[in-house]
């Protein structure tokens, strides 16, 4: 049977009969699992039997989340991690390894952009940033002989711009490298990047996936269709002693994980040795959040539409950035990629002085002033001084991020109260 998204988000990956018929997914709060006899241990440690050994590597609660995420994307495999940053950095390290390059844009989460200069070069990973991601041919021109992946966000923060994913995937595939997509803001409810050529999808599950602002979590998901045996990824083809079978013969990643080489390597290497494991309790919270993903995100999209309409008519607003706003240049890409709406994150230009902007931020009562998005509660922030503070003036200019920018992440409150809150905050500042 193949089930629809809304059935999978509640039931996918879980067979209650294997867990004492528990209706809610049990939290396996244990560090280690009994190995049984030493012959079973041989099979477990040689990846020949797929049961849990130790919670840093796998855990039944986390495993159900991974299976559910894979099912929601029609994907071959998934790995859950302790944060979105772990998901982003492990995925890029896995693709490029030592001496490889990643081709990307500056339209990314500020922490990701900062990691490009703060840590990745120190561990042998070089990043190339193209200036104008709206010009798809720039991706073609930006490729170098050792580029090992193209990395984009499907819906960007804070301006909700949309890359032409299908075309960018075509460019990646023409060079036998994968397209890795951060789909955090979109969530799989609004967009399944695998339907548009992505090979690997990463999430900060801290945001809309879990949706209640109560957990830090991440995930990497793979289509299972990309060929890592083309010669471009020697680290997937090199036989390793720690991957040996029960016969003591060395094997490579492609032999041990033929269906899920990307997430298989992430687990065997990155999770194993760098260790950003998601706790079973946090996996449980993400599973709980996923149960209402469609309902939450569609309400957030509806709230965004109402707030956009209000902002567009406010004398205190210079511009509104979201594909649903008037004259937005991403309307046709939004029709193609986001028929259910382009998410609940938007930005607007505040018409006033820096001091007035700060007073406005202090005056909202329903919108919370926090560095997060995708929460059930509506949030407001000034990105240049907070979430994107790491960006150099040059990088800010590249993404068009001015100090007048205010970002909103719409939650699940009444749209009437949200609009009234913005209105009273403007009144507080401007009278
Ligand atoms: C698009 C995107 N990717 C990755 C991250 C990092 O996620 P986390 O905070 O869960 O580490 C964030 C965090 O804001 C994000 O917005």
Structural commentary:
InterPro entries: Cys/Met-Metab_PyrdxlP-dep_enz, OAc-hSer/O-AcSer_sulfhydrylase, PyrdxlP-dep_Trfase, PyrdxlP-dep_Trfase_major, PyrdxlP-dep_Trfase_small. The modification N6-(pyridoxal phosphate)lysine is found at residue 207. Its cofactor is pyridoxal 5'-phosphate. The protein has 17 helices and 12 strands. The model has no long low-confidence stretch (mean pLDDT 96). The strands form 2 sheets. It has a 7-stranded mixed β-sheet with strand order 1-7-6-5-4-2-3, sandwiched between helices. It has a 5-stranded mixed β-sheet with strand order 8-9-12-11-10, covered by helices on one side. The chain has helices spanning 5-11, 38-45, 60-73, 84-96, 110-118, 137-142, 165-174, 187-190, 234-237, 253-256, 261-274, 280-290, 293-312, 331-337, 354-363, 393-399, 415-430, and strands at 77-81, 100-105, 125-130, 147-153, 179-182, 200-204, 218-222, 317-321, 345-350, 368-369, 379-381, 405-409. It folds into 2 domains: 5-289, Aspartate Aminotransferase, domain 2 (3-Layer(aba) Sandwich); 294-430, Alpha-Beta Complex (Aspartate Aminotransferase, domain 1), CATH 3.90.1150. Bound molecules: pyridoxal-5'-phosphate (PLP). Pyridoxal-5'-phosphate is lined by residues 83-85, 88, 109, 111, 153, 157, 182, 184-185, 204, 206, 216, 218. Residues 83-85, 88, 109, 111, 153, 157, 182, 184-185, 204, 206, 216, 218 line the site of pyridoxal-5'-phosphate.
């Amino acid at each position: 049977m193949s089930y629809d998204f809304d059935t999978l988000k509640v039931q996918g990956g879980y067979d209650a009969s294997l867990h004492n018929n528990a209706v809610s997914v049990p939290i396996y709060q244990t560090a280690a699992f009994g190995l049984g006899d030493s012959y079973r241990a041989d099979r477990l440690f040689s990846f020949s039997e797929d049961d849990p050994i130790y919670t840093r590597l796998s855990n039944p609660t986390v495993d159900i989340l991974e299976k559910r995420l894979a099912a929601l994307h029609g994907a071959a495999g998934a790995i859950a991690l302790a944060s979105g940053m772990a998901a982003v950095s492990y995925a890029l390290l896995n693709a490029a390894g030592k001496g490889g390059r990643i081709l990307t844009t500056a339209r990314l989460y500020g922490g990701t952009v900062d990691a490009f200069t703060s840590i990745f070069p120190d561990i042998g990973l070089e990043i190339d940033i193209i200036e104008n991601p709206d010009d798809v041919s720039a991706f073609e021109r930006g490729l170098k002989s050792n580029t090992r992946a193209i990395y984009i966000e499907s819906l960007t923060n804070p301006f909700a711009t949309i890359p032409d994913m299908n075309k960018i995937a075509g460019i990646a595939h023409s060079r036998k490298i994968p397209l890795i997509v951060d789909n955090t803001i979109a969530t799989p409810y609004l967009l399944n990047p695998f339907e548009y050529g992505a090979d690997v999808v990463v999430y900060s599950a801290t945001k809309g996936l879990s949706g209640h602002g109560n957990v830090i979590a991440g995930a990497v998901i793979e289509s299972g269709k990309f060929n890592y045996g083309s010669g471009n990824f020697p680290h997937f083809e090199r036989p390793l002693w720690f991957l040996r079978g029960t016969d003591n013969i060395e094997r490579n990643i492609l032999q041990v994980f033929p269906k899920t080489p990307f997430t298989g390597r992430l687990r065997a290497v990155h999770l194993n040795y760098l260790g950003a494991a998601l706790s079973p309790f946090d996996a449980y919270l993400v599973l709980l959040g996923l149960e209402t993903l469609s309902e939450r995100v569609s309400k957030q999209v509806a709230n965004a539409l109402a707030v956009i309409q209000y902002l567009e008519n406010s004398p205190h607003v210079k511009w509104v950035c979201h594909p649903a706003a008037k004259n937005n240049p991403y309307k046709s890409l939004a029709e193609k990629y986001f028929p259910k709406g382009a998410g609940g994150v938007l930005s607007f230009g505040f018409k006033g002085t820096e001091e007035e902007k700060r007073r406005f931020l202090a005056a909202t009562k329903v919108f919370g002033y926090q560095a997060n998005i995708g929460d059930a509660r509506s949030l407001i922030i000034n990105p240049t001084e907070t979430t994107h503070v790491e960006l150099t003036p040059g990088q800010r200019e590249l993404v068009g991020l001015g100090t007048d920018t205010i970002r909103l992440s719409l939650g699940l409150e009444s749209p009437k109260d949200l609009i009234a809150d913005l209105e009273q905050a403007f009144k507080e500042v401007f009278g």
